[in-house]
Structures are given as structure tokens and as C-alpha cells.
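Components:
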Amino acid sequence: MSVAASSRFKTLLPGAFLVLVFFGAALISFFYTPFDVETLNIKNRMLTPNAVNWLGTDHFGRDILSMLMVGARTSIAVAFIAVGIGVLFGVPLGLLAASYRGRWADEFIMRGNDLVFAFPALLIAIMITAVFGPGAVNAIIAIGIFNVPVFARLTRGASLSLWNREFIMAARVAGKGSARISFEHILPNILNLLIVQSTIQFSLGILAEAGLSYVGLGAQPPTPSWGRMLADSQTLTTVAPHLALFPGMVIVLTVLGLNLLGDGLRDWLDPRLRRER
Amino acid sequence: MLLYLLKRLFSLIVTLFVASLVVFVVLEVVPGDPASYMLGINASADTVAALKSELGLDQSRFARYIQWVGGMFQGDFGTSYTYRTPVAEMVRERLNVSLPLTLFALTLAIVLAFPAGLLAASRRGGAADSVVMAITQLGVAIPNFWFAMWLVLLFAIKWQWFSAGGFPGWGEGFFVGMKALVLPAVALALPQASILTRVLRSSLLDVLNEDYVRTARAKGLTRRQALWRHALRNAMIPVLTIIGLQFSFLLAGAIIIENVFFLPGLGRLIFQSIAQRDLIVVESVIMLLVFAVVVVTFLVDIAYAWVDPRMRRGF
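Structure:
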């Protein structure tokens, strides 16, 4: 088996499979969940996994499988929009910095990046929460802000080397301006890199959302969220460990799937970037 | 080198200045006036005004900013609205938990990552490599607070080797204090150790492809001898950068882990202060963490430039 093919079987396919399962579960939850997640059924509380409630019920008698399906929506939405914010602001900033390389605009953008990097996502979330109160939107903004310098740095770094290549020289000779060259010639050439980084930031976003919801800075009840389910289960781990087991496993498998998908995409899209030498 | 140092130092100061402005401005727009919050809704306007002037809240925003920043230079972080004690004292007390926890976790991560990374790189493609890579792949995917919950369930509740949470204080003795930090440090270290292992492995593999390693092999060294004598030292540069970055991530990440273990560190202080509208404490703790991140990044950059002169150009 060739190296590329073996890597596809080891990372790309399992990763894509896991990611599809969780995106699928989130989509299906819009039309169907085994049980309603907002109806409390105290009589059936903390049931262990059984034929009716496949993954058991929580301390309010809600079906855990159904809550995980709806919770996937929160996680995916927060991570997706946060990556979107990072790409939307970070990529143009990085392109701009690279096209003005070495001059004050470049310097200004890169020092701005350093400034944002000085605030870990958790600190941004804490500051936003102090002002507007907790909520899923704040988690999105906090993780999104954190993503901007990540994409700006990556875009700038990858673009810089391209600006010295012949085909860019040719475009300049043809009279194209910096902005047009950035979007028509630089961007398509760094797209692979951006796709791979987006997968990685997506998985980090899911972890960050879970962490923020866990400390109460993310999605608020009754919106089901994986992080909140873990927070609720914490005091009950001795009596009902399955309450903590399933949401955690779902987070691990989703993040694992995204990371494998990212590794696989990197090898597949651009073999020069292969790390698993 | 001197020019590079001065340039970096200048940008460090600018970053800290702008960061302090951002923190101050953002937290100034927080709804709810601390004085009326502290006195409750039944307080008369006079009492609120008196407390406001006592806390210095009746001064202009500009004056308060100058006072806050000027005070921090002298180690004076102001007075907590809620507890009426100096913020610097509260922060110092909490740092006594957060800083040892961070250093403990960082040490653990390094101690775990080095043998694992070396093993994986020296047996590249073999069974040991596959096992290490699979474990680290899991390590970066597991949320540390979830891992922490299982540590508590197993080691504190089931086998009762450690306490489930809280901190006895350093007055009880060094080992009693460290014992309380074992589980939180392990939980914090897991993802960092995984990242570090992967960085070390890939950095070693990069270096092993270099000409000087081939030369070392050609003069008769075994693969392992070449790894230890020549590759490891050169592979350290990216690894040191990551270790520097991790220090700040750990300090911030500790905020969540402190919540799992009810540790009286900076994280719990910050949440408590938000709930009580004790904004001066929130501002100061955030600024302190930002300061730590910026300074550590600066030191790593300087160390990097010192080791590798190529880094001094156009930073």
C-alpha cells in the first residue's frame, strides 16, 4: 500500500466517519429525537442504559441520547461560527499584512495579533461575561476573537513565500494590484492550508465551548450542551457515573474525529506538508 | 542582538499598555454600579455617594485609569470593593495555589513528554511509536476537566488516596500542600504532555534528516547515539518555544481545573469577583495573567534569538 493510501485508511476515513456521525446526529435532531429534551420526567430519573433509554436518563429524567443529539447542535454551531469569524477577519488581515510585508501596515496588523494572543480565549470569555452575562453567543465571540490571530498569522506566513514566486511577478507585470493578486492568486494557493487549519480550530472550538459551558460561561439551561451536561453530572458521579461518561465520550470522539480528518486532509491535499514521516 | 532586544522590549511595553486600556475600558462599561450593588437596593442615595467617594468611584474615568495603572507599577492593585482588603494581598494568596499548580503541571508534562517523544522518534514507525502516537491523539482530544472528574472518582472517592478537592494551605507542610495539587496537576498536564510529545517527536524526526546526523551515522555512530549526541540538542528549539507557550496556557487553563477541585486559586477568585461585581479584582487578575503571558512570550523570543541568530531578522 502506498504511503498516501495507508494514511487515508488510518486518518482520513475514520476521521470523516466520526465527524459525519456527529453532524448527522445534530441534523437528525432537528426532525427527530427519541424523546423530547425539554420534558422532565422525575419518576424516571438517573436510569442506567436500557432498551428504552439507550444511554439512560439524567437527574431530571431526560433521555441522555436525545440531549446529546440536541447538544451536538450547540457545540457544532458555536465552533462553526467561531471558525467563521476567525477566517472572515483573520484571512483578509493576513493577506493584507503579506502584501504590505515589512511596512507599517504589516507591522500594525502583526502587533495587533500579538495583543489578542496575550488574552487566552478563557480570559476573553470571562471579560465578555462580566459585561453581558453568560450565554452561547458570548462563547462564540470569545472563541471567534481568539481564532482571528491564528488565521492571520497562518495566512501571512504562507502568503509571504508566494509573493516572491514567478507567477506573482507575472501578475504584477500584467498590471494587477496587490488586492487583486491577493484574492486571485495568493488565496487559491493557500486554501488547502486554511481548510486543514479550520478543521483543527473547529476541534479546539468544540473543546473550548465544552469548557466554557462547564464553568457556566457558555450555553445556558435549558439549551442542552455537552459541557453543561458534564457540569450537572459532576456532583452525581458516585451514584450515576454514566451521566458523566457519555457526554465526555461524545466530546472525545468528535474532537478525535476532527483531528484525524485534519491530519488526513493535510496529507491528501498537500503531501509536502506531511508530518508523519 | 541589542537592537532586536530593544525592539521587542518596546513592543512588549506597547502591548501591555494597550492591553491595560482594553481591560479597563471593557470592564468600565459593565452594567451595575459596584457601590449600589454592595449596599443593596434599600440604601439611601447619600450612603451610596459616600461609599462611592470612599472607593474612589466618584473620580473621572481617566483619573481612575491613571491611578490603577500607576498603582500596579508599585505593586498596589487597589482595594477590593467587597472585602475592603488590598487586591494585591488577595492575589498573592491565590497565586500561592495557582503558580505552584501551573509549575507542577508543566514539570509533569515535561517529565512525561520527553521519554515518550524520544521513544517514539527513535522507534519511528514501530509498535512503540504507534502506541505513543495513539495515546497522544487521545490526550489532545480529552477535555481536561472531564479527565479530572474521573481522577476524583477513582483516586479520591473509590481508593481515597487523595482528597477530592480543597486546599489545606502551605502551613500544613510542603508535602501536604503538594499532595492536594497532585490530581489537578495530572489533569492539567495530560493534554499539554500529549502536545509536547508530538512536537518533540516531529522536531526530532526533522533533525534526524539533517546532513550532520547523516555524517554522524557515517562516522560509525548508531542511530541511537546520533539521536542522543547530536539530534536532541538541535531539536530542543521548537520544543522550548512550546514549553513557553504552555506556561501561559496552563495558568489560564487552571481557571477551569480549579473549579473542579474547589482550589482557592486565581480562577475561583475571578469567578467570585464577577458574581460580586468586584470589578477592580477582575481587572487586576486579568491584567496579571495577560502580563504573565506577554512576559513569558517575550522571554521565549529572546532565548530563541539568542540561540538562533537567524531569528533576529524581521521578527
